[in-house]
Design brief:
The chain is of the alpha+beta class. It has one domain: Cytochrome p450, CATH 1.10.630.10. The chain has helices at about 15-20, 25-35, 55-60, 90-100, 105-110, 115-130, 140-155, 170-180, 185-190, 195-215, 225-240, 250-255, 260-265, 280-295, 300-315, 315-330, 345-360, 390-395, 400, 440-455; strands at about 35-40, 45-50, 135, 270, 275, 370, 375, 380, 385-390, 455-460, 470-475, 480, 485-490. The radius of gyration is 23 Å and the shape is globular. Residues about 260-270 have low confidence and may be disordered. The protein binds protoporphyrin IX containing FE. Belongs to the cytochrome P450 family.
Length: about 500
């Protein structure tokens, strides 16, 4: 394709360097060396990397119908597997699922989840209240908070993992992410021997199944398999029940009959190999719910983890946010509470969260597309099957886009100025019709937690709070390796 590449080795391509240094850091380094658009090899599969905003606009928005697939992930069987969720699906199947799922995350449906979110946030505050004035490893508390919220929102099941420290759901979900981060041996092999991926995955599935059968404990059961089995049981139970609940499970089950006239006719759409109902099958609902549980847990938890790291190091940010909150509460009557309708009126909070996600994009690894029809963009001819991945860090730290204030500095007001920036300059939730479907939910959860906590507590550093985050680990989520420890103390004059 006439693109520069970093030095690569036979068989492995450039994957070892990525696995060693994390994808985001490695791409940023290569971009500095090779320019805005270049290529690298995952095993022997070519991947295009870009931080060229025009090219991103073309691929993700203008010509998105030629790129309606993600890069094939090491744990993905094939494009046509029945075990498929929104994140991994491609082409018409993705479009069909996205059309069905979009209304589930509409503002009116999300409003129905407010009581759940309030309940879980209040639990979080109760737990902080019991742990005031002492050093806390905040990621532990945030993992439990976001897990509690997403399980309740997705399934209506109150697992209350915030109090139950040995909660099995919590541990299984953490194990899934650990597997993805460490990219276990089998997954590495699927990257190097991509032609044999379905066979290797089939072999791994059978092996996992047998280990689960032989073992007398749950330890050998694949965590993803375990979660899927539990969701399966919840759906089976729900089908038998005649109760209308307010959670994602209910919304997806109802989407089979409610949302779209054409779905009622239940026409078939023709996929590349087999026809599919226009409705989502129960199996697809199952996989999507597992997807929501995973996508809605570690991402939001990490985003809040970064937020508390910033707050502990920037007392002036704590003050600004508290001042905005105090004024907001003072303007309203005694029974006033922050909720989905009014939270977006908190402009500084919005800029704060936006800046956190500029400096620490959580899920840059997922901002990629796979070419499904040969496409020419400028001089670049992109063949079928080649993936394009975005170097989000280089864009988010580009002085020409985000200056004049130093892009290494935390400065929320850079979002207040009336500066026109390309829509592909800010990518924490991806871009185009295939951006993060859970964005509104995630922002609501983050803002609710920050607003409610900062109204009551100050966030302080301890002698062990890092002042800079240097090392990261990255599977689908980029997390700091440095442990963020902070302390909460009660604000004066608050109840
Ligand atoms: C701070 C929290 C979150 C961040 C930073 C984040 C980020 C992302 C990113 C970067 C993508 C890829 C977008 C693209 O390719 O253009 C994505 C996709 C996705 N996210 Fe999120 N996400 C978050 C929370 C959530 C939540 C709470 C849910 C669900 C409850 C969710 C569900 C999904 C799904 C299903 C996709 C795939 C969408 C598709 O392929 O059509 N995410 N997310």
């Amino acid at each position: 394709m006439g693109l520069k590449t970093p030095k690569f080795s036979f068989f492995y391509g450039n994957l070892p360097e990525i696995l060693k240094n994390t994808q985001s850091n490695t791409l940023r380094k290569w971009t500095a060396e090779l320019g805005k658009t270049y290529g690298y090899y995952e095993g022997h599969l070519p991947v295009i990397v870009t931080s060229d905003l025009e090219l991103i606009n073309e691929v993700f928005i203008k010509q998105y119908s030629n790129f309606m697939a993600r890069k094939i992930y090491p744990w993905q069987f094939s494009d046509n597997s029945p075990k498929m969720d929104l994140f991994l699906s491609s082409n018409k199947r993705w479009k069909r699922m996205r059309n069905i799922i979009n209304p589930t995350f509409s503002p009116s449906k999300l409003k129905e989840l407010i009581p759940i979110m309030n309940k879980c946030t209040q639990r979080f505050i109760n737990i902080l209240e019991q742990n005031l004035d002492q050093e806390l490893l905040i990621s532990d508390f945030l993992n439990r908070y976001t897990m509690d919220t997403i399980w309740n929102s997705a399934t209506g099941m109150d697992i209350n993992c915030q109090s139950d420290l040995n909660n099995e759901y919590m541990h299984k979900a953490l194990d899934v992410f650990k597997d993805l981060e460490e990219l276990k041996f089998g997954f590495r092999m699927t990257s190097y021997l991509s032609e044999f991926r379905p066979i290797i995955l089939q072999f791994m599935t059978i092996l996992t199944y047998l280990m689960g059968k032989i073992s007398t404990t749950n330890d050998f059961v694949d965590p993803l398999f375990w979660l899927t089995q539990h969701i399966h049981q919840i759906i089976e139970q729900r089908k038998k029940e005649n109760i209308r609940r307010k959670d994602f499970t209910q919304l997806l089950i109802e989407s089979r009959i409610e949302d779209n006239e054409s779905l009622k006719k239940n026409e078939k759409i023709v996929m590349s190999k087999f026809p599919l109902d226009k409705q989502m099958s129960f199996e697809e609902i199952e996989f999507n719910l597992v997807g929501f549980l995973l996508a809605g847990f570690e991402t939001t938890s990490s985003a809040l983890n970064y937020s508390f790291f910033i707050l502990a190091n920037h007392p002036e940010e704590v003050s600004k946010l508290q001042q905005e909150l105090d004024e907001f509460y003072a303007k309203n009557d005694q029974n006033f509470d922050i909720n989905f309708d009014n939270i977006n009126q908190l402009e500084y909070l919005d800029m704060f969260v936006t800046e956190v996600l500029r400096m620490y994009p959580i899920s840059s690894n997922t901002v990629n597309r796979r070419c499904m029809f040969p496409t020419q963009i400028g001089d670049l001819k992109i063949p079928i099957g080649v993936s394009i991945t975005v170097d989000v860090l280089s864009i988010h730290y580009d002085h020409n886009i985000w200056g004049p204030v130093d892009t290494e500095m935390f400065y929320p007001l850079r979002f207040s100025a009336d500066v026109k920036r390309s829509q592909s300059a800010y990518l924490p939730f991806g871009i185009g019709p295939r951006n993060c479907v859970g964005m509104r939910y995630a922002l609501m959860e983050m803002k609710m937690a920050l607003a409610k906590i900062l109204f009551i507590y100050n966030v302080l550093p301890t002698e062990n709070t890092p002042t800079k985050l240097v090392n990261f680990t990255e599977g689908t989520v980029r997390r700091p390796k440095d442990l963020v420890k902070v302390k909460f103390v009660k604000r004066q004059n608050t109840v």
